[in-house]
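Notes from the 1:1 (GR / supervisor)

We went over the backlog. Supervisor wanted to see one worked example end to end before approving the batch request, so GR pasted a single chain during the call. The sequence is below; no edits were made to it. Supervisor asked that the structure be written out right there so they could see what the output format looks like.
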Amino acid sequence: DLIIVWTQGAVEPMIPIWVEGGVNGLWVCSAAAGRVDYVELRQRYGPDLVLLGGIDAHALYEDRAAIDHAMAHVPALLAQGAYIPMADERVRCGVPFVNYRYYRERIRKLAEQMWRTKP
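Structure output shown during the call:
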């Protein structure tokens, strides 16, 4: 079974309690605001903790450089598995469509690269 907790903010003190209680999936919304580091979570819990999100949705309001920066950790997490790359919260109105399209295309290309390199 996959038991996912959806939460917001600085929740890192709660994660060990959730994992002990059987939670094996985590989607932290507003990860940037709460300073939840998905790379650190992966190092601590390995792929037994499925991670969703982790891409700062606010970067989508900016430009390609900001989106690339917000997605810098995605290739490493994809390579380790048990990760679904997506914005850390809903993509809101006001995000330029060209930025949204770039973000989705980047996810697609990164996922394709990962699958091509898997044995």
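Supervisor's comment: The longest strand covers residues 50-55.
Batch request approved.
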